[in-house]
Write a structure and sequence with these properties.
Helix content: 40-55%
Distance between the termini: 28 Å
Structural class: alpha+beta
Strand content: 15-25%
Radius of gyration: 21 Å
Shape: globular
CATH architecture of the largest domain: 2-Layer Sandwich
Number of domains: 2
Oligomer: single chain
Bound molecules: alpha-D-galactopyranose
Length: 385
């Protein structure tokens, strides 16, 4: 059964009627533009064909009651008395979104819902952003406010930053909110302006999950952010976005060696993200792949957020004739890589990379050939266009 069928079936079994709404919000994979979002720079993700789904009906009493099929748990909370998070659990993401929307002046109503999804949790494909945006969409359906993808993404990011104390940038929430079918989305993380671009003809995006997870990612992430912010202050600009490579060539030596490499990654990655758009517009898979390979090297050597497992799966992918280019994707330290491969060879490419990686590292990988999907939406009943 698909997640959509699962949430509908359980809803009907639980409440004895059809859901009033079924909403979904996707996970994401980032093609290029990594660790640039919190530097006001450019990212180039696509929403994937894996999502969090909620079947729901409105309630009259300002309470939310939700069943997570994946966690096999039922939780409830009152919108006028939100319980503060302790150790983060799935329900805290719903509460955080309610808090954040409330802070922003949205008047919320309650709902009964059943939640399930097929975005692998903790693998770097943004299952948390998918849950947040699905929750926001659920509140939208039972309350009385307009859906604005940017505003919803910002509210969900604020929930992560200020309620859940996770210091993320805007990329994951923005692409889950604003994804476009069959298109990658170039996002300017300062203005939140977006431009779509199709993948080069004949190419497929293949997600290569290393099967490894790393606990230290939060502290390493915060350390990278702090260093980038310090480098921007040193240059007297609001963010590293405001420095181009030419200026960096002139002034980079003023920074200490580690900060210089961190800044060089961000500044060069911003340029690569913009070049990737030109390559996509030109349908140039070779150039796009080369930019992805360069991005990985920069993340590995200058930003130092890769891992032996990520390096192994990326090297395995890049050695295949069917691959234009592969790189780690997301925060790093484990999780997933992404590859651009020839469509007709994508399945065998995935199998070959998995076999090599398994033999070399002993880890069990997961491979997903994916398609770009739409951002958060209501699938039942069909929304007003
Ligand atoms: C995580 C964060 C994003 C972004 C990436 C790195 O996914 O949630 O905001 O910073 O890492 O590009």
């Amino acid at each position: 059964m698909s997640p959509q069928e699962k949430v509908r079936a359980r809803f009907e079994a639980e409440f004895g009627e059809s859901p009033a709404f079924i909403v979904r919000a996707p996970g994401r994979v980032n093609l290029i533009g990594e660790h640039t979002d919190y530097n006001d720079g450019f990212v180039f993700p696509m929403a994937i064909d894996r999502a969090t789904w909620i079947a729901l009906r409105p309630r009259a009493d300002k309470r939310v009651s939700a069943i997570s099929l994946d966690m096999d748990e039922r939780r409830e909370f009152a919108l006028d008395d939100l319980p503060r998070p302790g150790k983060l659990r799935w329900i805290d993401y719903l509460i955080g979104v309610a808090w954040s929307l409330g802070e922003r002046g949205y008047a919320l109503n309650g709902w009964d819902g059943v939640i399930s999804g097929d975005v692998p949790i903790g693998s770097g494909l943004s299952s948390s952003a998918a849950l947040e945006l699905a929750a926001a969409r659920a509140f939208y359906e039972v309350s009385d406010f307009d859906w604005d993808a940017r505003a919803m993404a910002l509210a969900c990011q604020a929930a992560e930053n200020n309620w859940l104390s996770v210091n993320c940038g805007i990329m994951d929430q923005m692409i889950s909110a604003a994804g476009v079918a069959d298109r990658a989305l170039l996002i300017d993380c300062r203005s939140l302006a977006t431009r779509t671009a199709p993948l080069p003809p004949g190419t497929a995006v293949v997600i290569l999950d290393t099967g490894t997870r790393r606990g230290l990612v939060d502290s390493e992430y915060n350390e990278r952010r702090a260093r980038c912010e310090a480098a921007a202050r040193h240059f007297g600009v609001a963010a590293l976005r405001d420095i181009d490579l030419a200026e960096f060539e002139r002034r980079g030596h003023e920074l200490d060696e580690v900060s210089r490499r961190r800044a060089r990654h961000v500044i060069s990655e911003n340029e690569r993200a913009l070049q990737a758009r030109d390559a996509m517009k030109a349908g140039d898979a070779g150039t796009l792949g080369r930019l992805m390979i360069e991005s990985h090297i920069s993340l590995r050597d200058d930003f130092e957020v890769s891992s032996p497992a990520l390096d192994a799966i990326v090297a395995g992918a890049n050695a295949e004739a069917a691959c234009y280019g592969a790189r780690m994707t997301g925060a790093g330290f484990g999780g997933c890589a992404v590859a651009l491969a020839r469509t007709e060879a994508a399945d065998t490419f995935g199998e070959r990379v998995a076999a090599k990686y398994r033999a070399e590292t002993g880890y069990e990988p997961a491979i997903y050939v994916t398609r770009a999907s739409r951002g958060a939406e209501t699938v039942f009943p069909a929304s007003i266009p």
